[in-house]
């Protein structure tokens, strides 16, 4: 058992002596993993195509709704501002810190710009879901940056992954944008109906944008090389796996035999 920590320390900074970071690592991983299991079980976050799944019986509950565009902006803007602010709050940091803050800021800036100029929206989302997702992104971004700051005086991991991380991050952010463009172009102006995506990796999986989002977070984790970053990324993998499987089931229920059965959830030929 003793060999496990020594092996991991070749790739990770030692955890900083911070109860906050340790607690947030556990909360982030467990909450995202639990959310992934809920998606598989049909208990969906109420946004996007799942907005009306299981909501009919709650029409009279007085739930507050946001337009999808405003909700998505609320998702990403706080995290983007936190990433941007980190350059001013933590001046004169090392290259790894700067790369991490830059990657997180670019990640959420891209999201905001996609909401404003790429995505086409057709519905709404609950205010509760918007708040939960927004807080998740904001707290995870702030905690990841703070964990990196606390690692500034700790000796570097034996294996330096930050340059590999940059490459993986760029692959992830580019692939995610490309498949978001495909999704946006499925609908002509004024159309609101869902269609089966085609083109790119949509020929093999129904959620390649989630697959590339995972690449993006893996890249960020490799840049950071902190236990919190890897814990959050692992939790994100579990959540997006659940979300992808639920999305595939939704397409099958909506399109029936018209949905190609060989198209997987988000890992080609496997899942």
Spans with pLDDT under 50 lasting ≥5 residues?
A: 55-60
Arrangement of strands in the largest sheet: 1-2
Q: Tell me the strand percentage band.
A: under 5%
Label the overall shape: globular
Order of helices and strands: HHEHHEHHHH
**Portion of residues within helices:** 55-70%
Termini gap = 32 Å
What can be said about the biggest beta sheet? 2 strands, antiparallel
Report on the architecture of this protein.
The longest helix is centred in the last third of the chain and has 29 residues. This protein has a two-stranded antiparallel ribbon. Helix 4 runs antiparallel to helix 5 and helix 7 packs antiparallel against helix 8. With 271 residues, it is an all-alpha fold. It has eight helices and two strands; from the N terminus they run H-H-E-H-H-E-H-H-H-H. About 2% of the residues have low confidence. It has two domains: 91 residues, no CATH class; 115 residues, no CATH class.
Keywords, separated by commas or semicolons:
globular; 2 strands; 2 domains
Question: Topology of this protein?
Answer:
Elements: H1 3-8, H2 19-40, E1 65-67, H3 68-89, H4 95-117, E2 124-126, H5 127-150, H6 162-185, H7 208-224, H8 227-255
Antiparallel strand pairs: 1-2
Please outline what is shown here.
By secondary structure, this protein is mainly alpha-helical. The chain has 8 helices and 2 strands. Strands 1-2 form a two-stranded antiparallel sheet.
